[in-house]
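Model it.
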Amino acid sequence: MAKSLIIVESPAKARTIKKYLGAGFTVKASVGHVKDLPEHRLGIDVAHDFAPEYVPIKGKKKLLQELRTEAEKAERLESTDFNPEFIKLLRSDLKTLREIEELWDRVRRDPKWLAFRDTLKSPKLRSSKLIIFTESKETAEYLAEKITKEVEKDVLLFTGNSDQSVRKEVISNFDPKAFRPSDEFRILVATEVLAAHPPLAADDPENAWAGGSWTTFSGVQPEGGR
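Modeled.
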């Protein structure tokens, strides 16, 4: 029997979702973007309303083929295949989530961030580079913004949406084996997508730069898991 296919960005999310859904589902991770604009040419068709040209990201061709293979095997569902009662429940859940979002937008104080900010400002961390891993892209963006405003101006952010230029900055500033090392950035905030990008691959994000002179924080989340 064909399985339903779900593709998410994060390997950790894929593992977690798989635990909940069980054997009837195949859950795969794209590990960030799989395509981007070409590096060595414009990548925009000026004559046709500036249509972008996307090409597979280096190292992602094998993953793309795996995802295509799984998609060919997966069960296909039309909107009419869903029970009307199920659609009603989904709409009710969406309404509840929007109400929660509205309440969350009123929150102005984040105790977890305040505690983490004080840790980042501690003297013992001032002399080392810092790598902060978090699962959520939104959390990474939130932390990068907060750190930039309240701790240190120059912060490097890497998520699944980051392009090759940002990846090169990560390598030059935080990879101990970088061909041309740089100290432009001292703090890196990243999702676990970074740990799966060669040559920074590691089984555990916390060990991705083992041997370097820096401190790594993993699983960081602000108040409420935002």
